[in-house]
UniProtKB/TrEMBL annotation:
This is D-xylose-proton symporter. It is found in: Cell membrane. GO terms for molecular function: transmembrane transporter activity. It is a multi-pass membrane protein. It catalyses: D-xylose(in) + H(+)(in) = D-xylose(out) + H(+)(out). Its main location: membrane. Belongs to the major facilitator superfamily. Sugar transporter (TC 2.A.1.1) family. The chain crosses the membrane at residues 12-31, 51-72, 84-103, 109-130, 150-172, 184-203, 262-289, 304-326, 333-357, 377-396, 408-427, 433-454.
Length: 470
């Protein structure tokens, strides 16, 4: 698209509002993912679970997320982006309600799996939708709303966990209606699920989906509202660009992703690798297990909850900084800075935990290593939140050619959730081997992510979606 047409596009208040509504799925994604943090110890004690079973109970939602992400693309191409978001809201509401009322381990696993499917659907559809309704010059900032919503959801979940545990006197203690506090931690998630489902009722369909379905007049109306393009050559040229980019599309299928290099197109492998590296650096260990981790190295349960909430606040603030920088600095430079910073901070954490004494519940970090570990963990969150957190979602929403975007994003997001599952389910066992080993492994992946970005990732700042090449 030429620069004259780009100059005529504006990020209207409407496009910002609908992007915020779509990103609410990210809030639920973050909330539902992190709410288990405060409940881990209580669930483990209440159901007498060993490390392997608590690891699976925490991470089973991620298998559901991989399934939801895999099918989100085809469902979104068939039913539309908006209807797919509504499905995600229903699944997340049902999961929150069911998880809070479970009577045993296996129904908790089942309801967490259902919620995971909803998370997976939301993780694919929100960045795709936001990218498709946004002008190119602000697409990075609006796409970063997904990650901002995720970290706000994490913060809200950890804050509500801390408050509920504080009121009850502990996550395993009785709270309202005679139910344990950890049950209320899950039940609270029904509120944002209802809000999300209500908000997406007023969101317009993606113009690219409308064009793909031959609903040209509706697409023209949406483009006029979203990009403030008046009737005339600029609006018709934008429609023509979308039609041109979709001209070869029948319905995207997995076979459309085939290429000569290891069976897939190079751009698809880049998307998969971005997704895997985002999880392989161990970020969700901080948000799924941090309360247990800080409790185990000498902090009280109350202090451990407080530290976890503070860490999530840091994550929110640095994500705001990333939003301010993404369309000025670009995606690739931020990823490079993040990889370097994470390598250093994770290496420091590995060094700190090499000084630990005891094991399991009696693990202890001596002074000053416990404070160095605490500072390093928060610095690690800063580097992740500035780079790999938001940038991966921005890139996945925009880097693929239009004709394969939905299905390629589904494949990449599924890979991300499987990597997330592998990291999360393995952490309790890795922790038994030694936390120094675990964080050293994550530091190695952070270093490998730097090599990958320098060699394989292309900058997409300012490029129109219709001009993305495979």
């Amino acid at each position: 698209m030429d620069t004259t047409m780009q100059a005529q596009q504006h990020a209207t208040s409407r496009v910002v509002l609908v992007s915020l509504a779509a990103a609410m799925g990210g809030f639920l994604f973050g909330f539902d993912s992190a709410v288990i943090n405060g409940a881990v110890d209580a669930v483990r004690g209440g159901f007498a679970l060993d490390a392997a079973r608590i690891g699976f109970a925490v991470s089973c939602a991620l298998l559901g997320a991989a399934l939801g992400a895999w099918y989100a693309g085809p469902v979104a191409d068939r039913w539309g982006r908006v209807r797919t978001m509504q499905v995600a809201a229903v699944l997340l509401f049902a999961s929150a309600l069911g998880s809070g009322l479970v009577v045993g381990l296996w129904d908790l696993i089942a309801w967490r799996f259902v919620g995971g499917v909803g998370i997976g659907v939301a993780s694919v559809i929100a960045p795709a939708y936001i990218a498709e309704v946004s002008p190119a010059h602000v697409r990075g900032r609006l796409g970063s709303l997904q990650q901002l919503a995720i970290v706000l959801g994490i913060f809200a979940a950890l804050l509500s966990d801390a408050w509920i545990a504080g009121v009850a006197g502990g996550a395993a203690k009785s709270a309202w209606l005679g139910m344990e506090a950890w049950r209320w931690m899950f039940l609270v998630a029904t509120v944002p699920a209802l809000i999300y489902g209500t908000l997406v009722l007023g969101v317009p369909e993606s113009p690219r989906h409308l064009v793909a379905k031959g609903r040209i007049d509706e697409a023209r109306d949406v483009l006029r509202q979203m990009l403030a393009l008046p009737n005339g050559p600029a609006l018709e040229a934008k429609l023509h660009d979308i039609q041109r980019s979709l001209a070869s599309e029948v319905r995207p299928r997995l076979r459309d992703l085939r290429g000569q290099r290891l069976g897939l197109l190079p751009i698809v492998w880049v998307g998969i690798a971005l997704s895997v590296f985002q999880q392989a650096v161990g970020i969700n260990v901080i948000f799924y297990y941090s309360s247990t981790l800080w409790h185990s190295v000498g902090f009280s349960e109350s202090d451990a909850f407080t530290i976890t909430v503070v860490t999530s606040v840091v994550n929110v603030l640095v994500t705001l900084l990333a939003i301010a920088l993404v369309d000025k600095v670009g995606r690739k430079p931020l990823l490079v800075v993040g990889s370097v910073g994470m390598t250093v901070t994770l290496g420091l954490m590995a060094l700190c935990f090499a000084q630990a004494t005891g094991e399991g519940a009696s693990l202890s970090l001596p002074q000053p290593w416990n404070m160095v570990a605490l500072v390093s963990a928060n610095a690690y969150v800063v580097f992740f939140g500035l780079s790999w957190g938001p940038m991966v979602w921005v890139l996945l929403g925009e880097m693929f050619p239009n004709r394969i975007r939905a299905i390629a994003l589904a494949v990449a997001a599924s890979a991300q959730w499987l990597a997330n599952f592998a990291v999360t389910v393995s952490f309790p066992k890795l922790a038994e081997i030694g936390l120094s080993f675990a964080y050293g492994l994550y530091a190695t992946f952070a270093l490998l992510s730097l090599v990958f970005v320098l060699k394989a990732v292309r900058e997409t700042r300012g490029v129109e979606l219709e001009d993305m090449q495979g």
